[in-house]
């Protein structure tokens, strides 16, 4: 343990940066971008330095802890701390923010964009959002978590509503209202939790006497609804395609790549340990919904002609896998779900950014039918698109494969049939992903596409880190797994689940292999 | 005071003795009401030219002196005026809040930089709308400074209302507070017919509500033989059996106060009055009357009728739910921002009622915090409404707010902060307030009421956010209003409102401590 307030500093740097960027004169958009990029790199640097000091073997669940009284009248503390899962998600946010800024360099430039906001405003909002993202993962006080969880909506609301496409106003409102539905029910449940336990401090809640099972079942619903809407899980997903379709690619990356992970993160961090009995009680229903989501998302994606909507539905399918991994209550399932979150963040970023590059070259059209044969005029773009597609369908050797494989393995350990059915989802994923690639990139060059430019250096440099991480972690996931496994074990202990004894030798060997 | 003291003694059998009055305890109220009398004299004897500076000086000096007098009573916990007034922690906090809000309200009313013809008030309220007289008065640049006398009397009534400790004093306070407000509501410079209609409606319905209150008070007096809250509580505790009449009495008295709060089904006046009254008056009224009336309601219910809580909580349950939903749902359909905020204030009253229904120290604290938070936000909201104008005065139609974020980003951002606070988004005062009353209600076992409130908050979020959508997500068009540059008066009020709204969201603890240390009502 060291006394340097890492997490507070991590949150403050982008916050101050956001204010500074917002205060720049409107006539200096370039400076605003450069400053925002520099600040996001500073944050990334800080996260790397912090992560290197994270002790994977430590007996403390939470590291880099800070705790101060905030509102003693309500028993609210300003408590921060990270376990392995939170750490990797913070790292994911810190990686994706500079990439998003770099990739979205010209996205909100007037007058080609149809947005109503200023350039500096967009980048200030991204930095503000980064503060909230770090805060929401680092909070170890339920109230503080809720504050970030809700406050996070505001920057995103403006990012969609001010800088999005034609339907932005509708999409932003829908996003906000859906999120508030979840958030306000969570508020009610949180108040209930406070009344029952008398504290908001996460650790103290867990140390305290367990909550009676019937109360758990009610309170769990409040929290879970918020997370299920955020994630989003079928049937609470309808805001996502609209939001994604109306967003700038950068907004969509942060929204789907990071923000939606707050939902699945919340399930692991709050639902499972605080309400073990209720989690167990509702698990069959949730697993059923998750599997439905896997197929529903995949099938709808198969029939989509709008690229952004297609990726949104595809994400929904992936979220089905993540939720499945969480609620089978096996170590490998939950670890897999966490790896899947990272993998999905990276592959979503790759997909949306390459698709964004593509759309920008054709007046922002997101219709799949507008594109064909792009690989001839723009081979590098097509190459990255193929990479993103393969990463989305979980090609072995890429990190998404590790996540998906572990989730399915964990599911098989517990529910053979569910695992079997869910595996079929992969096939459909492959079908729609490859269909997109085939239609847009191969074949005869579509009219109007003959002279499109290939990726520029800036655009490539935003994609290279994603690709590198995807491959590196795909071949060597140990750094991530070593960090998250202790946290996952703690969750397993708290939820009172034990891994089923291996019945087939082959599975248990493989599972150990994957854990290494 | 003497008149009241005499009344108290009329019902006493003990021989008459000289009432003792501790002037220190009465100082805050006496200062304000005394200044009101002085203000009338100024109107009568000062030449027109010097009235405004003199009246303004009087008002602000008075309010600051009253605030000092309230602070000076810090820690006092006793009854005054022969038991007619209760000077205790919650009462003093509410008084202090009323004074502070009155200062901000006075700043809004003193504004003369927004309307090209002067302030927000009619040049002569007595001139016929649209008449030659009116044109003449306006052209000659006449101003009404009588508003300040009314204002001071209203503030005095509001300060008396939450510390009134018997039924008669409460009624007097109610009337002292209301009568000047009826008049102020009818004095708008623009859209005068609307304003006069609002005033009349407010007066007629208000008189009706006062009658309810009096009727109930008479019944309670008949039952308990006393008008003092303490003795009513004692006799309600000792006698049993005659519940039907008591319930009617409680219903009537509470209805009279609920009218002032704007709780459904006594809310019909709210949208008309909010819309018709001059905007600075609306802002002051919306904020300060809520504080005063909720203070009175809390004292009435907790002190006098505390023993009957099992009888009146179900009634308030229903009223609270009704108020939240009527306010939130009807606000959805509004196209005028003042009417929308009026319905929003109804919904907010429903949320505050959650703290009342909790019947606990936490509920009292939560309700007081919510009231203070809400009052500052409301002042800010109306400050901005008074600044958004077109050639016909304030542009209150929502369509004129489209694209305001592009034209005046600072004002639009401030308005967004207020809307977020009213929605109850974290890091604003509104969230802490909601949390305080919701958790108090939950702790008292009113789980389903909290769920209902959550659903109502959600509906409310929709119309609050609609304004944000209009301001920020739509392009300005030729209809879009202009944000007028206010003088220092409105600027100070707006800055204070915004600062407090954010500050109470980020560091609410000092105020929560202050309220918690104030304790509960003296019995």
TrEMBL record, chain A:
Signal sequence interval, chain numbering:
none
Membrane topology, as annotated: Multi-pass membrane protein
Source species of the chain: freshwater metagenome
Protein name per the record: Unannotated protein
Domain NADH:quinone oxidoreductase/Mrp antiporter transmembrane: start-end pairs: 139-429
Q: Which GO terms describe its molecular function?
A: NADH dehydrogenase (ubiquinone) activity; NADH dehydrogenase activity; ubiquinone binding
Q: Which UniProt keywords apply?
A: Membrane, Transmembrane, Transmembrane helix
Looking up PANTHER family in the UniProt record yields: NADH-UBIQUINONE OXIDOREDUCTASE CHAIN 4
Keyword Transmembrane on this protein? yes
Q: What is its main location?
A: membrane
Q: Which GO terms describe its cellular component?
A: membrane
Enumerate the Gene Ontology biological process terms. ATP synthesis coupled electron transport; electron transport coupled proton transport
- Where would you find the membrane-spanning parts of this chain? 6-24, 36-54, 84-105, 117-137, 143-163, 175-198, 218-240, 252-275, 281-303, 310-334, 340-359, 380-403, 415-434, 455-476
UniProt-annotated location(s): Membrane
Q: What InterPro entries does the database record attribute to this sequence?
A: NADH_Q_OxRdtase_chainM/4, NADH_UbQ_OxRdtase, ND/Mrp_TM
Q: Which family does it belong to?
A: Belongs to the complex I subunit 4 family.
From TrEMBL, chain B:
Q: Where are the transmembrane segments?
A: 25-46, 53-72, 92-110, 147-164, 170-188, 200-223, 243-263, 284-302, 314-333, 340-361, 367-388, 409-428, 448-469, 481-507
Keywords, comma-separated and alphabetical: Membrane, Transmembrane, Transmembrane helix
Give the bilayer topology: Multi-pass membrane protein
Instruction: State any GO CC term.
Output: membrane
GO function term, MF aspect, one: NADH dehydrogenase (ubiquinone) activity
Q: Where in the cell is it found?
A: Membrane
- Could you tell me the Gene Ontology terms of the biological process aspect for this record? ATP synthesis coupled electron transport
Pfam families in the cross-refs: Proton_antipo_M (PF00361)
Looking at the record, the residues that make up the NADH:quinone oxidoreductase/Mrp antiporter transmembrane domain are 164-459
Q: Which PANTHER family match?
A: NADH DEHYDROGENASE
The protein in question is named Unannotated protein
> Which organism is this protein's natural source?
freshwater metagenome
């Amino acid at each position: 343990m060291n006394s340097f307030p890492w997490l507070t500093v991590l949150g403050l740097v982008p916050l101050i940066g956001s204010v500074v960027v917002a205060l720049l004169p409107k006539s200096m958009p370039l400076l605003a971008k450069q400053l925002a990029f520099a600040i996001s790199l500073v944050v990334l640097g800080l996260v790397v330095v912090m992560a290197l000091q994270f002790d994977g073997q430590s007996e403390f669940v939470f590291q880099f802890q800070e705790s101060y009284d905030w509102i003693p009248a309500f028993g609210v503390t300003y408590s921060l701390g990270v376990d392995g899962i939170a750490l990797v998600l913070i790292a994911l946010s810190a990686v994706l923010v500079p990439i998003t800024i770099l990739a979205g360099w010209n996205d909100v430039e007037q007058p080609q964009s149809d947005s109503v906001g200023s350039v500096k405003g967009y980048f200030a909002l991204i930095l503000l959002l980064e503060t909230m993202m770090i805060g929401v993962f680092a909070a170890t006080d339920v109230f503080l978590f809720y504050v970030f969880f809700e406050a996070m909506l505001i920057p995103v609301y403006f990012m969609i509503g001010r800088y999005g496409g034609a339907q932005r106003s509708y999409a932003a409102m829908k996003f906000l209202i859906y999120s508030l539905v979840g958030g306000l029910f969570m508020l009610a449940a949180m108040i209930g939790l406070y009344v029952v336990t008398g504290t908001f401090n996460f650790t103290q809640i867990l140390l305290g006497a367990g909550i009676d099972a019937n109360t758990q079942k009610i309170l769990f619903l409040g929290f879970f609804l918020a997370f299920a809407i955020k994630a989003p899980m079928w049937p609470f997903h309808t805001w996502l395609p609209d939001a994604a379709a109306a967003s700038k690619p950068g907004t969509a990356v942060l929204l789907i790549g990071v923000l939606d992970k707050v939902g699945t993160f919340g399930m692991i961090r709050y639902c499972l340990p605080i309400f073990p009995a209720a989690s167990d009680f509702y698990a069959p229903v949730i697993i059923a919904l998750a599997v439905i989501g896997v197929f529903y998302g995949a099938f709808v994606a198969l029939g989509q002609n709008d690229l952004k909507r297609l990726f949104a539905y595809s994400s929904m399918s992936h979220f089905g896998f993540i939720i499945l991994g969480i609620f089978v209550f096996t170590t490998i399932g939950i670890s897999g779900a966490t790896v899947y979150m990272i993998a999905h963040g990276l592959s979503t970023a790759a997909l949306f950014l390459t698709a964004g590059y593509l759309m920008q070259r054709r007046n922002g059209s997101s219709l799949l039918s507008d594109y064909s044969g792009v690989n001839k005029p723009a081979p590098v773009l097509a190459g990255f698109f193929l990479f993103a597609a393969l990463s989305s369908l979980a090609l072995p050797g890429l990190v998404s494969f590790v996540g998906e494989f572990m989730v399915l393995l964990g599911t098989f350990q517990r529910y053979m049939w569910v695992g079997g059915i869910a595996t079929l989802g992969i096939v459909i994923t492959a079908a729609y992903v490859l269909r997109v690639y085939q239609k847009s990139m191969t074949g005869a060059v579509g009219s109007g596409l003959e002279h499109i430019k290939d990726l520029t250096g800036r655009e490539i440099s935003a994609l290279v880190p994603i690709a590198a991480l995807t491959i590196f972690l795909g071949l060597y996931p140990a750094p991530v797994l070593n960090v998250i496994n202790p946290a996952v074990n703690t969750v397993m202990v708290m939820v009172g689940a034990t891994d089923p004894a291996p019945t087939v030798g082959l599975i248990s060997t493989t599972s150990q292999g994957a854990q290494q | 005071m003497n008149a009241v003291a005499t009344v108290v003694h009329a019902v006493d059998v003990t021989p008459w003795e000289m009432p003792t009055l501790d002037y220190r305890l009465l100082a805050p109220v006496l200062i304000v009401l005394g200044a009101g009398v002085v203000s009338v004299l100024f109107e009568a004897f000062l030449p027109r030219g010097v009235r405004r500076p003199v009246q303004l000086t009087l008002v602000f000096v008075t309010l600051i002196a009253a605030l000092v007098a309230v602070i000076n009573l810090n820690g006092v916990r006793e009854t005054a005026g022969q038991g007619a007034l209760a000077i205790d922690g919650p009462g003093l906090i509410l008084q202090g809040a009323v004074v502070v809000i009155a200062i901000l309200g006075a700043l809004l009313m003193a504004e003369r930089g927004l309307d090209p013809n002067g302030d927000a008030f009619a040049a002569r309220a007595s001139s016929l709308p649209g008449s030659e007289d009116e044109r003449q008065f306006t052209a000659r640049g006449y101003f009404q400074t009588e508003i300040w006398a009314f204002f001071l009397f209203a503030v005095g009534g509001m300060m008396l209302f939450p510390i009134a400790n018997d039924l008669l004093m409460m009624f007097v306070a109610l009337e002292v507070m209301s009568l000047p407000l009826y008049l102020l509501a009818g004095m708008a410079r623009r859209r005068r017919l609307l304003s006069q209609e609002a005033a009349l409606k407010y007066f007629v319905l208000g008189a009706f509500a006062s009658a309810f209150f009096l009727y109930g008070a008479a019944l309670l007096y008949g039952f308990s033989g006393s008008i003092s809250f303490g003795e009513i509580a004692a006799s309600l505790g000792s006698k049993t059996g005659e519940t039907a009449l008591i319930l009617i009495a409680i219903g009537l008295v509470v209805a009279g106060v609920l009218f002032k709060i704007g709780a459904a089904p006594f809310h019909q006046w709210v949208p008309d009055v909010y819309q018709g009254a001059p905007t600075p008056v609306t802002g002051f009224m919306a904020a300060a009357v809520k504080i005063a009336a909720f203070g009175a309601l809390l004292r009435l219910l907790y002190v006098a009728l505390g023993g009957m809580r099992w009888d009146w909580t179900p009634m308030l349950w229903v009223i609270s739910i009704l108020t939240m939903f009527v306010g939130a749902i009807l606000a959805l359909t509004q196209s005028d921002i003042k009417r929308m905020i009026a319905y929003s204030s109804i919904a907010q009253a429903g949320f505050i009622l959650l703290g009342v229904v909790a019947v606990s120290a936490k509920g009292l604290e939560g309700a007081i915090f919510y009231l203070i938070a809400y009052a500052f936000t409301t002042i800010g909201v109306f400050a901005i409404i008074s600044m958004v104008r077109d050639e016909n005065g304030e542009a209150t139609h929502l369509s004129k707010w489209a694209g305001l974020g592009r034209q005046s980003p600072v004002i639009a951002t401030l308005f967004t902060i207020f809307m977020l606070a009213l929605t109850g988004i974290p890091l604003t005062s509104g969230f802490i307030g909601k949390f305080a009353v919701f958790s108090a209600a939950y702790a008292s076992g009113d789980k389903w009421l909290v769920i209902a409130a959550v659903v109502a908050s959600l509906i409310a979020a929709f119309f609050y956010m609609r304004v944000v959508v209009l301001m920020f997500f739509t392009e300005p068009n030729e209809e879009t209003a202009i944000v007028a540059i206010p003088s220092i008066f409105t600027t100070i009020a707006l800055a204070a409102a915004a600062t407090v709204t954010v500050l109470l969201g980020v560091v609410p603890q000092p105020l929560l401590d202050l309220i918690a240390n104030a304790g509960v009502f003296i019995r």
